[in-house]
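RECORD TYPE: inverse folding
INPUT: structure tokens
STRUCTURE:
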């Protein structure tokens, strides 16, 4: 690699030599144990795959196939007719063919259970391009969400300014509308590009009966046979994702009368004055706290955003609209105990704000889990998240909530957890819930002192920043000073975060450190990985992140790709890590 020059002052420059990536000492020691005379032949490679990479089904033929693939298109200095040298093995380990999750697994969970048995990748106000008060509404964020694998799209539908057509917008705010029909067409075109499993459209309906009839006509004409319509009586049991492949499902609880849009200038000014944006506290947002942390003081001043006060009255809708609603939504009369009532003859969807769930979890934890065995529970961000920030999704998942709705256009650590959870099961947007959430009585509040497994994580080194960033991106005067944070987001005592030493002035840092994590609920644990660049003058710079479901980690030495704070994968940046249980 060429040397780099950094300006120190007006007339002086400092030159740094940029070295090529080299295997760290502990990796060299592993190679020495599985090689002879500096070469790893096919038999030792097979042993390496079995013992280090823990690929228990690997055969001698698999080892030969890997060796042949590494030699393509023709043998180089990295290879010898009798085997592969250290640099050859290093190239394999750090290559794209060695990811931390097995790409061959694909969709491997049982997909024949009812929808209520799955966590579902869910968006909130899916049409917004930015904040909740004044950003544009568009079909573009809907398309991006679907291509990422999101399976639940939320649309708020309102009469347009002339009351003769339907717009999608965040009502009673300054957001600019987008046409309902345009959103429907974009959903149809992109619904099944990333996954064949069903797309659920949740409608927050503020329409008159005549416009409901028009909405029904648009939906029918757009989706046709793709629509799943069980009939006006609703469902007595939820069908399976497998049975609903490439189907579109409508779920809504329209209000009994539609509301006229009003602006929220008072809310907007209060946001500007007092409300902080977690995503602005560094590009990665606030640290993820334990779900048992103290509930925020502003809980009591929560202004709920969604209006679901009574159960759906089917007779209040035009018949052509009523027939489209596959999953009925509503809270019903009474308090939380009544909302969580389980009807043996009917299934439904209940929506709670993040703060309603936190309050309910204190007294009704078991009832929530019991409700989610048969019914769908959707959690949405509190109404004061004007900045489109998000919340800790673990409190929803640990209570069995299937639809933990997130602002997908945002960024930050909580959104990284959402991305991480749904990298599981082949990225299809449906992840089977752990068995303990399907077999009551499970008490989410009960302490879980028993360690089920210990995860050992080794962080060897990283590379790729030199290729993906300008040489002055992190520091104008010298190469970057990288460190890595690694930890667990999960339940109770599983939550932890640890940090490597900082490697100064090096584009290809070698840490060679090992950490251990005791896990009591590995089924819900997510491995968090972040790289930062130390900055003496202020906040540290962001160098990449990844989040992975612990239950799907491949043991052994793996190349872990890193993503931007928005969740986009970097072209070259990755870490070399090892995982052992």
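DESIGNED SEQUENCE:
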């Amino acid at each position: 690699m060429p040397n780099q020059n950094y300006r120190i002052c007006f007339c002086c420059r400092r030159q740094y030599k940029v070295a090529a990536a080299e295997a760290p000492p502990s990796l060299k020691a592993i190679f020495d144990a599985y090689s002879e005379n500096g070469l790893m032949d096919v038999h030792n490679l097979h042993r390496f795959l079995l013992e280090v990479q823990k690929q228990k089904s690997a055969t001698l033929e698999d080892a030969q196939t890997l060796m042949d693939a590494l030699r393509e298109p023709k043998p180089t200095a990295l290879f010898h007719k009798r085997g592969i040298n250290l640099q050859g093995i290093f190239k394999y380990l750090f290559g794209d063919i060695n990811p931390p999750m097995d790409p061959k697994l694909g969709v491997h969970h049982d997909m024949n259970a009812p929808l209520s048995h799955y966590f579902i990748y869910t968006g909130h106000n899916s049409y917004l391009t930015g904040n909740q008060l004044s950003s544009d509404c568009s079909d573009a964020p809907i398309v991006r969400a679907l291509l990422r694998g999101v399976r639940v799209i939320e649309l708020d539908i309102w009469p347009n300014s002339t009351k003769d057509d339907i717009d999608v917008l965040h009502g009673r705010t300054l957001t600019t509308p987008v046409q309902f029909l345009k959103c429907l067409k974009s959903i149809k075109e992109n619904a099944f590009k990333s996954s064949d499993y069903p797309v659920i459209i949740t409608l927050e309906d503020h329409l008159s009966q005549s416009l409901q009839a028009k909405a029904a006509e648009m939906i029918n004409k757009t989706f046709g046979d793709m629509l799943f319509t069980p009939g006006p009586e609703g469902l007595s049991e939820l069908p399976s994702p497998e049975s609903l492949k490439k189907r579109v499902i409508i779920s809504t609880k329209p209000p009994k009368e539609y509301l006229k849009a009003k602006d929220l200038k008072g809310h907007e000014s209060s946001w500007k004055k007092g409300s902080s944006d977690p995503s602005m506290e560094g590009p990665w947002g606030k640290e993820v706290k334990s779900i048992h942390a103290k509930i925020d003081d502003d809980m009591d001043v929560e202004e709920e955003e969604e209006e679901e006060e009574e159960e759906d009255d089917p007779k209040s809708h035009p018949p052509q609209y009523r027939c489209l609603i596959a999953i009925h939504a509503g809270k019903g009369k009474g308090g939380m105990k009544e909302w969580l009532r389980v009807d043996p003859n009917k299934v439904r969807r209940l929506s709670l704000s993040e703060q309603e769930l936190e309050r309910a979890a204190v007294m009704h934890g078991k009832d929530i889990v019991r409700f989610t065995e048969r019914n769908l529970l959707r959690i949405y961000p509190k109404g004061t998240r004007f900045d489109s920030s998000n919340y800790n999704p673990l409190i929803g998942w640990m209570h069995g909530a299937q639809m933990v709705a997130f602002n997908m256009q945002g960024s930050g650590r909580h959104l990284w957890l959402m991305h991480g959870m749904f990298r599981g099961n082949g990225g299809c947007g449906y992840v089977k819930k752990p068995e303990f959430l399907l077999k009551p009585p499970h008490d989410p509040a009960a302490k879980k002192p028993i360690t089920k497994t210990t995860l050992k994580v080794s962080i060897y080194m990283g590379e790729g920043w030199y290729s993906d960033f300008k040489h002055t991106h992190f520091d104008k005067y010298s190469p970057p000073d990288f460190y890595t944070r690694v930890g667990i987001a999960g339940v109770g005592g599983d939550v932890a975060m640890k940090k490597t030493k900082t490697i100064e002035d090096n584009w290809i840092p070698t840490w060679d450190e090992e950490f251990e994590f005791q896990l009591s609920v590995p089924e819900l644990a997510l491995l968090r990985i972040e790289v930062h660049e130390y900055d003496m003058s202020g906040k540290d710079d962001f160098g990449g992140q990844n989040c992975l479901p612990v239950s799907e980690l491949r043991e052994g030495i793996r190349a872990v790709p890193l993503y931007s704070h928005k969740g986009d994968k970097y072209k070259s940046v990755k870490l070399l890590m090892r995982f052992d249980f």
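NOTES: The chain is about 20% helix and 25% strand.
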